[in-house]
Specification:
Blueprint: H1 2-22, E1 32-37, E2 40-41, E3 46-55, E4 60-62, E5 67-72, E6 79-80, E7 85-89, H2 92-127, H3 133-166, E8 168-170, E9 175-180, E10 187-188, E11 193-199, E12 203-210, E13 222-227, E14 230-242, E15 252-259, E16 271-277, E17 284-287, E18 292-294, E19 297-303, E20 309-313, E21 315-316, E22 323-328, E23 336-337, E24 350-353
Helix pairs in contact: 2-3
GO cellular component, one term: efflux pump complex
Domain Multidrug resistance protein MdtA-like alpha-helical hairpin: 98-158
Domain Multidrug resistance protein MdtA-like barrel-sandwich hybrid: 64-197
């Protein structure tokens, strides 16, 4: 009897097991995370020009007299203070000239004392009617001539004294010696550039603009500046100065870019790049990783507000280093998949996240 019931019990137990399995909850489908971005203005539409950070004011310093350089007291790149001596000329000649002028002053003073005494004596004699009026007038003229001569010699002495002081070249204000153009023993003329001083204060960027496109640049035009020491940050600026003539060697026009966004951490001599907006409509751009193609047609995966994907054909421009301009097919408010586009398919539902892996709610307008 037991042997008959055993084969009947096994099928029944299997039925109960299958029924029990049928009542279990089905596992939930896990949505695939997908990094999304919005199209940005294409960087390729901005012309960039390399430049160098310079001081707003860079006066050329020179001696006011000529002579032989006897001392050079600072080096190129050295920081200096206002009125600090930078270089000296051989003072022998100016000292001799000063001594000669001092002696002339003493002689003129002695002559003035003599002619003054003569004038006073002739005046007394004229009052006593012992000399004529013409003789007194002659003595008076000699006195006035001596007085004028003394003033002249004193003025020449002041000039000689100043020239003795001009033998020492001093910094007009605080700054950095940007360029040195003389050596000890060199003979320089008055006004010949000895040093170029980059004064403390405002900083600018010096760039060179091409001759063929110079007409589209104007003073006050807004630009953006990127320092090589801070490649991920751009600073607002404007074209402050444009050279009226091209450089005879490079055939480019020098331009100075002033910062307009407050204090900028720009140091003298730093490399920089200036971005100037190109003419025309600014297209959008997406990362290169967001673009795919099939049968010669480029497309991106656009994310709908319900987090589903739609294949969107686009017309693109020239490829950049990291992005590609999109000429048609997208709007600035669209969201597109930025990576992993080769494993996606039409209508797939994803979980949008940003570059920091934070969930992006596409239904909320940015």
């Amino acid at each position: 009897m037991r042997s008959i019931l055993l084969p009947l019990a096994l099928p029944a137990s299997l039925v109960f097991l299958l029924a029990a399995c049928g009542h279990e909850e089905s596992p939930q489908t896990t949505l695939r995370p997908a990094m999304v971005v919005q199209p940005q203005p294409a960087a390729q539409t901005m012309d960039s020009y390399p430049g160098e950070v310079r001081a707003r004011y860079e006066p050329d310093l020179a001696f006011r007299i000529g002579g032989k350089v006897s001392k050079r007291l600072v080096e190129e790149g050295e920081r200096v203070k206002a009125n600090q001596p930078l270089a000296e000329l051989d003072p022998q000649d100016v000292r001799l000239q000063l001594e000669a002028t001092r002696a002339q002053v003493a002689a003129a003073e002695a002559n003035l004392r003599l002619v003054r005494a003569e004038r006073d004596r002739y005046k007394t004699l004229m009052d006593r009617q012992l000399v004529s009026r013409s003789q007194y007038d002659n003595a008076e003229n000699l006195y006035r001539s001596g007085e004028a001569r003394l003033k002249q010699i004193k003025a020449e002495f002041d000039v000689s004294s100043n020239q003795a002081g001009y033998a020492v070249l001093r910094a007009p204000q605080d700054g950095v010696v940007a360029k040195r153009a003389v050596e000890v023993g060199q003979v320089v003329s008055a006004g010949q550039t000895v040093f170029t001083l980059a004064t403390d204060g405002e900083r600018e960027v010096l760039i060179s603009l091409p001759e063929q496109g110079f007409g589209r640049f104007k003073i006050g035009q807004p630009v953006s500046v990127e320092l090589w020491s801070q490649p991920d940050q751009r600073f607002a600026g404007r074209i402050r100065e444009l050279s009226p003539a091209a450089d005879p060697k490079s055939r480019t026009f020098a331009a100075r870019i002033a910062f307009t966004g407050g204090k900028v951490p720009a140091e003298l001599g730093q490399s920089a790049r200036v971005f100037i907006q190109a003419d025309g409509v600014i297209p959008l751009s997406v990362p290169l990783s967001a673009l795919s193609a099939e049968n010669g047609v480029s497309y991106v995966w656009r994310v709908q507000p319900d987090d589903t994907l739609v294949r969107t054909p686009v017309r693109i421009g020239a490829f950049g280093e990291k992005t590609v301009p999109v000429l048609e097919g997208l709007s600035p408010t669209d969201w597109v998949i930025a990576a992993g586009v080769h494993v996606l398919h039409e209508g797939q539902q994803v979980r949008p996240v940003d570059r920091s892996n934070r969930v992006v709610n596409l239904a909320v307008k940015e």
